[in-house]
Amino acid sequence: MGATRETGSDAPGEARFLARLALLAVLGSLLVLVLALGEGGLIVLGAGLLGVVLCAAGVWWFVAHRGLLRVIGALLVFLAPAGVVVLFAYQGLWLTALILVLCWGVALTCARAALRRSRPERPQVATAAARPARPVLIMNPKSGGGKVGRFGLVERAEELGARVILLDPGAPADVTELARRAVADGADLLGVAGGDGTQALVAAVAAEHDLPFLVISAGTRNHFAMDLGLDRNDPAACLEALTDGEELRVDLGDVSGRAFVNTVSFGVYADVVQRPEYRDDKAGTALSLMPDLLVGEGVRRLDSLVDGAPLADQQALLVSNNPYFSPDEISGTGRRPRLDDGELGVLGIRVEDVAQAADLAVRGSQSTGLTVLSAHRVEVTVSGPAEADGSPEAVEDAGTDGPPEAAEDAGADGPPEAGTSGAVEIPVAVDGEALRMPIPVVCTLRPGALRVLVPRDRPGVVAPPPAIDWRRILDLAFGRTVRTAPR
User: Taking the model in full, what pTM does it have?
Assistant: First the structure.
């Protein structure tokens, strides 16, 4: 982790003021509860907590079971919060509940602002970039529901002097080979208009030849583009980098020899996306398979070594190219504050019953069902019968989990990489692409391996709110020394 540095006594006055406001808001919420004890304050607290627990139980029963329990779970998801609201209205406690929510909201807002001001985010260094003379851009017309055509990306790129290779949806191509041919023909920049899976394949070729790489946000979600600060609503704006751009050095992930820019997922999610029917019916396929993957007979778990330390019996494991800023955000909306810190983010999930689901809902990242780590090397295998019998079929139902990035470019990148003949393979989702890889699957990072060309105007660059650390808030508020690990 490195040495620590000290701040606090010299923390900005604004940070100290905000920390004190946060503590006052917390005290205010406690005072409201104390004053309302005789008028239902405990009911407000107890009913709110019960509502969260019942809602979490409903989600678990809906996802992990079929039949009557799934119906009951669906009802609980809607009825639990509705019942809490009705109870507050019937008991005349809605004002107390509203004040508590407002106090807590002010506390969290001020706490995050104090932490951000006491330890400003170190901006990533961008360097001036020369205009490329022979840029080559690979574009997938199907990505993002047809953004390439809708935003006129081919025409705009050619106006700026780029050569465009337009993929044929009816004839799957080897994108890696196309990129290598472009380099052999003299390309001095490679770029992609497509999903993150295609971005990663071409980025690997650019990194191999130390060429600039251009990200055009023409996919469905484009997490990589989002974390670079690019405008995902206007992919044509990304092309401005060809004439007035700057360069960032970012890390590039590697999973058993294949590059990734966002995440590698093991567990439930990857097994779901392996199924052919997933493309046409994502929700239906997931709901159909989840009970067997979570609580069915013969369910297998993931074992891993995280920088040599064991992490066993996980249902799902998410390895990311640099950590996400908050482990509570494990959906596709999570963000990475940096892409150049040289560390993998590791998120392990193990929820096997309704009690653990409730614990995760109430305690979040403090739950025993959630493991949050950072590492330089992660080695993943499976526990149980798959290691004993050594057949690929033995792990047919092992899957993955992670942000719900659709494998939108399947078919455009060529056939998935096959594993070693006779080796045990497990499903792996690499930037949303459904693959199978022989175990052990090893994830590492190549720090600063990728030169990314970006426009100077990046409206998506934001500083994500820091995770709340109430000990640091207390230290800031009272001027005590704060020890923090260096960035």
Answer: 0.74
